[in-house]
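If your schedule permits, I should be very grateful for your opinion on a structural question. I have a record of one protein: its chain in single-letter code and its fold written as discrete structure tokens. Would you kindly read the sequence against the tokens and tell me how you understand this chain to fold? Thank you for your consideration; the sequence and its tokens are set out here.


***
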Amino acid sequence: MRTALSHSRIELLEDCPLKFKAIVLDKTPWKKGLPLYNGGFLHDLAEAYINYLTEIGIQSDIKGGLELFEEKWMARHEDKEFKAIPEAEHDQLLEAWTSFIEDRVFEPDNIVGSEMEIALDGKWEQVDWFDKERAFFRAKMDLVTLTNQDPPTVTDFKSSYNASSKDEAERNPQGRRYIMALLSTKGRLGSADEYRVIYDFMRSNVQREVILTRGHGLEERDRTFAISEKLEKRIKKNEWDATPGNGCHDCPLFESACPAKGLAAPERGIQDPETAKQMLAHLIMLNEQAKRIRGALEGYTATAGIVESGGQVFGPRPMQDYAWDILTLREWANRNGISIEDIVRPRSRTELEKLARKTADKKKAIDELLGIATIENGTEYRIRKATGE
């Protein structure tokens, strides 16, 4: 019997195999962080609200949605997870929820399922969600809709503050795993050639839409099975790497059994001088590594052009250095009431024009500054935000 997987379990395994073992296999008690509890609360509200709208056949009910929030809030103390949410979180959660219900309508006739659950066996056929013997992969989808005009649509509600970019949404494997699950269903939902996945960021009201095909779902089957194969080998060999990262803040092994605790300390905060020394040594090593990586990237992008990752780019960009006749510049600065320190740093033409706006005659000031400066054209290499989306 293989270890059952899901999107969240795969994410956990890829983030830190040792943490995966602790939580999934060893069932180590795990106290989630407050952001996860808050997110779960908002998801629970969304499910209840959509079910309420579907039951009475309306698209929106802001008053009813706000009453539902207060009802769920008062009852959170009875929930084993939501009881950890302190009273101080009420206002920010209410603000997020109010924005969510004010800016969205849901057509009841198009809703196939809210929090729709699909469990698959090793042959990619549906089995009961609670079948521990046969269930190999489980997918729970926040909202699945179907219309006559649009492709079958999965909407995934995100409670994080920051919305992903369009590029990040397209690379997110979560949507492909949803399509993989839908392919096992009957009717048009399981036989469509094209599907739509919407990542709906509840707090910012940003929506990222991705169009996927049946082929994406079939390919994800192969990837998921390969991940399962590697996992079963880890179990057999009892090999579990500790890979520090964002997940360290709520890891149940951090204090007692993490072999990479020293490297993971920044994720938890530094509490003692010895850890501080370890972190300094690690920072020095990272700085040296960053220098080597930067040098390699400069050499590569000098001929190949810029490279992009995660919405940022690195590569050559034209720049200008300004060398100044200091005596003449000081006289000009005093005459125009501008500090010389604001001028002597290397500047672009745009920056000089901004500085010249402080003078009585912008055009004259620019001409005078360019007459004082010796301009050297060059190239700079640095990380900067990608243009476009």
In short: The chain has 15 helices and ten strands. Residues 23 and 166 are 32 Å apart (CA to CA). The two ends are 45 Å apart (CA to CA).
